[in-house]
Amino acid sequence: MKLPDQVVKDLIKEVVGPDAAPLVDIILKKDDVSEFKIADKLKITVNQVRNILYRLQDYNLITFTRKKDKSKGWYIYFWTFDHSKARILLLKHKSEKLVSLKLRVEKEKYSAYFVCPNKCIRSAFENAMELQFKCTECGEILKQEDNQAKMAQIQNEILKLEQEVHQYRFMDVNNEEEQPEKKAKAKPTKSKAK
Questions:
Q1: At what angle do helices 46-58 and 35-42 cross, to 10 degrees?
Q2: Contact at 8 Å (CB) between 116 and 142?
Q3: Considering the entire predicted model, what is its pTM?
Q4: Tally of helices (H runs) and strands (E runs) in the chain
Q5: Which residues pair with 143 in a beta bridge?
Q6: Which residues contact 105 (CB under 8 A, 6 or more apart)?
Q7: Per-residue pLDDT averaged across 135-139, rounded?
Q8: Helix (H, G, I), strand (E, B) or coil at 177
Q9: Per DSSP, what are the bridge partners of residue 141?
């Protein structure tokens, strides 16, 4: 089972860059697409296309085959999006975000923060003390922040991410269960009589 197209595009924008999303849109549904056709459709140079393709390849999100052009003598590369690697990258990316958010909640829970009334800066207690509780931007006195709302927001993000990770892991399990196991049948060996 493939990831939804929008999930893939969002992942690509976040990990590879927003300029890669239109290219992925082209190779997402079609296998073995020539880099020249991609350049034509996107109205950019082949070198720009290759730059994006190489960035996608850094994350193992695409595969290629090459064929020699008989008339010109050079190789033409045909690219295919690897949906299974995209799922693996998505799970890894979301899991890393989860770890980061959980660390942030712990930090929010055990630290005091001070903010500028004009919302110029937000600073931990130690930094605020070094600044003598004055905003470096506008000079206003910093006030202690009630970070309960911020912690609740982070907790909601954590719950949402945990659900997404579970959903995409579940997709992997379903995918494996749907495919029948191929067991190699052992061939009987013939013993030679001497």
A1: 110
A2: yes
A3: 0.71
A4: 7, 6
A5: 115
A6: 151, 154, 155, 158
A7: 89
A8: helix
A9: 134
